[in-house]
Structure formats: C-alpha cells, structure tokens
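Record now logged for everyone:
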Amino acid sequence: MTDNSTSLQPLTGSVGVSLSGIDLTTDITAAEADALRSALFNHCVLILRGQLLEPDDHMRLAEVFGEPFLPWYYAKNSLEGFPKIAIVPNFGKAKAPAEAWHTDWSHMSTPPAVSVARAHVLPETGGDTMFSNQYVAYERLSDGMKEFLAGRRAKFVGSRPKAVQKMAGTSDTLPKAEREPVINHHPLARVHPGTGRTALYLNRPGEAMVAIEGMTEAESLPILRFLYEQSSTPDNVYRHQWQPGDVICWDNRCAMHYGVHDYGDAERTLHRITVGGAE
C-alpha cells in the first residue's frame, strides 16, 4: 500500500522495486514510512533515486526500519559525528568482502534486518550491486525439501577482533591471528515478521554457512550448496547500476546481495546504515 503521492515501479519480474514521490530530505510522514516499509518488505530491495541526502537524512530514513546498529570494531570506519554510519570503501578486488552472494553478518546472534546504503563516490563505470529474492528461492523448492527444512537450523560462522581489543576501538581489518571466531545457529527457512512469508536464509556454503544442525559438514554441504546456487539464478536477480543520488534499502531477511568488483583501483565509497542486529 502507498499513499496518493507515491508511485511504485517493479524493477524485475522477481525482485526489487523503485519508489518515487518521497523527498527524503524532509521529515517522513507516517503514511510515507508505511509505504517505505511495505515496498521493502514485499519486494526485498527498494530503490530511491535522486535523493541527495545529508547524514541526518540518511539516519532518519534508516530509523523508519528500526534501530541502527554498528559493531564496536567498525568504529574506525564510521562517518565522523555519525557513529552508526559505516564508510564502505574500495578494499581492492583481492579483499573485496562482498564479491559473492551473501547475507550481512549472519554469524551474529541477531543478524541485521535492513541495510540502507547511499552512493557517496562512484567510479566512472562498474561497481554494480546484485540482489536475489529469497522468498522466491524458497517457494521454488519441492514440498519434500520444504518439509526437510522446516525447523532446521544452519551453523553460521564469522569472526571479530578479539574482545581484549574492544577498549582500543580496533578496526575490523586485522589478520586472522588477532581475531576470534563467532558461531551462531539460525533457521534455514524463516518467516518474515513483516509479511508472514517464508524465505530462505543463506550465506556462502563452506565459509560462512558450514553445516546443518545435527548433521556433519560432509552431509550438509551438498544440500547447502544446492540451496545457495538455485537461489540466485538469473531469473531471480536484480542488478543495480549505481547513479549519484541513489539510495538502496535491502532486507537481509529475504534477500542476498553481491557487490561486483570490476572497477580496479578507482574510488568507490558507499555510506551504509545497518538496522537491527546484535553480537
């Protein structure tokens, strides 16, 4: 549902929608907030174009979806004066953390709900971001696979700087020897609280998602790889070509994303706010 001043335009047959008719540099009305949430929750990815936001505007938009969250070890990569806005630079292709289909911070005890990113500096060409719809990925499964997944959790793994470094505000970019593992289990099929629809919840098999609870890794990985690969087929993907003034909101509970690194050493910087989440 939208109010009379807003307009929705689907971006593909399966994922993504563009919403126009809202000026995000002014206060967001209750009707506009409802339209933003409805568009995002139902379409997994929401594109807002021509929005030249200041950090205060960015924060106000993110708060429509919940409480902004940034782990303590990202403090050195946050925007000055705005500790919940992360600066996402060009890490180089060899270290690009997003160049694979993934869900942000799935290893946390409460993974993030929504991410809100805006373009700050863009390369002349390249740097697209792709998104896939995990409602559709679940709905395409056989009844037998859906029955198998019901109630099953996967083991999600990640790492963070060792807790002893917390007071020093250590950056997340540390060698493995100075990090500690983080492990949590989450359902592979989750009901979205805003829509009541079921979506797959996945990450990189064998790396960020390593086993199904109660099964060995060898038993689990063929299933996890099948789910992962079928969830991002071309007919279930939207590829966004960033333009100045673009803002993208994506719902980590029903979407995976992939940052394409094809811009070499050119500067590409996004400002991103993550909503929800807990370590």
About this structure: The mean pLDDT is 93. The longest helix spans residues 30-43. Helices lie at 30-43, 55-62, 134-139, 143-149, 217-230. Residues 7-275 form a domain with the Double-stranded beta-helix fold (CATH 3.60.130.10).
